[in-house]
Each structure stands twice: as C-alpha cells, then as structure tokens.
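User: Quick sanity check before I run a bigger batch. Here is a single chain. Can you write out its predicted 3D structure?
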Amino acid sequence: MAQWLQVHPDNPQARLLKQAVAWLQQGKVLAVPTDSSYALVCHLDDKTAIDQLRRIRGVDERHHLTLLCRDLSELGVYAKVDNRQFRLLKACTPGAYTFILEATKEVPRRVAHPQRKTIGLRVPEHTTLQQLLDMHGSPLLATTLIPIDETQALNDAQEIRTRYEHTLAAVVDAGACAGQATTVVDLTPMGTGGDPLLVREGAGDVTLLGL
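Assistant: Done. Predicted structure follows.
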C-alpha cells in the first residue's frame, strides 16, 4: 500500500522528506504537491521508474514530461537557452509555468520528445517541493497527476493514496494545491528569432510572457 507522508506545508519535516528521497533513489514513483496540482515524480535516470510513471499517467513517449528544477542554473544544464529565452525565464521563475525547450545531452534520450528532442522544464514555487528537490540534489522527472480517461488533475492526497495504493510508493501530503494547471509555453521558436508560443493558459500570468 502506498505510504502517506503528511508534512507541514510551511515547514515540512526533514525526516519525512529524506524518506521520500530514499524511495526516489530506489526507483520508486511518488505523488508530490506542486504550485499547481499534485504530480507524479521519479528519478531522471531510472528507466523502470520512467516507464512506470508513463503507465500510471497513461501516456507514451510523445507526451512531454517535465523536469522539476531548483533554479535557473540547474534548468540551464538540461535545456539550451539563449539570451532572449533566459530573460523570459528569469521573469517567470519560480512560478506555475512549464517551458518547452530544446534538450541538452544531459537529458536521457528516452525522456526527451522523440521527434523534437525537446523537454518540459519547471522551477516550481512550492516550499515542500523545493525542499524535496534540495535534498534529492538533482531535478525530478514529473507529469501532472491526471487519471487515465479524466481531464482534471487530482488535488487531494488521501484520494490519490486510495486510487493509487498499489502503484505508488508514497504520497507526500502538504495539503491541497492550487488546483490549476501550469501555463505551458513553447520557447523553441525564440531560438530562430520567433516569439514564444502559448500552448496552454493556466495559473501562470501570461502578461509576463508578453503575450
């Protein structure tokens, strides 16, 4: 049965986050809170965990997965970013945005989009998730926790634990999330002199993107 780690939303208990990190390093898939909704996360370099994450979510390799990064410097390791893109990223992070960018060689081939060689990247603004990322020491691979054949992300940790008790290692419960999807922006056109492309309007303020 999936473990339930109930943490304080403003001051999460370090011992519980350390347990979550240990499971991630063992190749487990967890549900964690973000500044938009709950997400499924796993270790970036674990093929078995990545395959399980995709099965739980019901998506294939053409679905953009997202790297949750601690800051812009970490994001720059995994994505090719020019000066224009960097200025926009700086204005919008941390926050409820997902950016599609060209992946660097640091991103495993099985994780990047097979045709476009792109990856989704986020710098979330959520205390528990930021501390979890700090303890983990590297980005986590993530996807919004939307059940198969449904359209709304789950936002209640107890419901998540009940529905996924046999497929998740644990649920990190820091209370309800905002319950609104991230704003998704494709920044790859900027690399050839174009403008950012709004893929989905969500919690992130689109005016910061100049759109």
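The mean pLDDT is 93.

User: Great, the batch can go ahead then.
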